[in-house]
Amino acid sequence: MSRYYRYRIPLWARKCIFVVEACVTPILVFQIIRTLLIPTAFDILILAVLIGLALSFYMQWI
């Protein structure tokens, strides 16, 4: 079984991945600032999801 390779998927899906990858860092920074100022359980949950997504892009799991 071959490993997942992002360039083997359809062009429309690849473009979606590139857009999400470009947008996740600014949204993550905004969410960190928001969580530091007004922490709620929902903000912490969103922050955890965004950190996981950013790490998966950085480690090239997606």
Query: What is the H/E string?
Result: HH
Question: How much helix is in the residues?
Answer: over 70%
How large is the share of residues in beta strands? under 5%
- Please summarize the sheet with the most strands: none
N- to C-terminal distance: 17 Å
The low-pLDDT segments are: none
Would you report the number of β strands?
0
* Number of helices, where a helix is a run of at least 4 consecutive DSSP H or I residues: 2
- State mean pLDDT (0 to 100 scale): 88
How would you sum up the global shape?
elongated
> Structural class given helices, strands, pairing?
mainly alpha
C-alpha-based Rg, rounded: 14 Å
Descriptive overview:
The protein has 62 residues and is mainly α. It has a domain at 6-10 and 23-58. It is 73% helix and 0% strand. The protein is built from two helices and no strands. α1 (11-37) crosses α2. The protein starts with 10 loop residues before the first helix and ends with a helix. The relative contact order is 0.12. The chain crosses the membrane at residues 12-30, 36-58. Keywords: Membrane, Transmembrane, Transmembrane helix. This is Membrane protein YszA.
Features:
single chain; 62 residues; mainly alpha; 73% helix; elongated; Membrane protein YszA; transmembrane helix
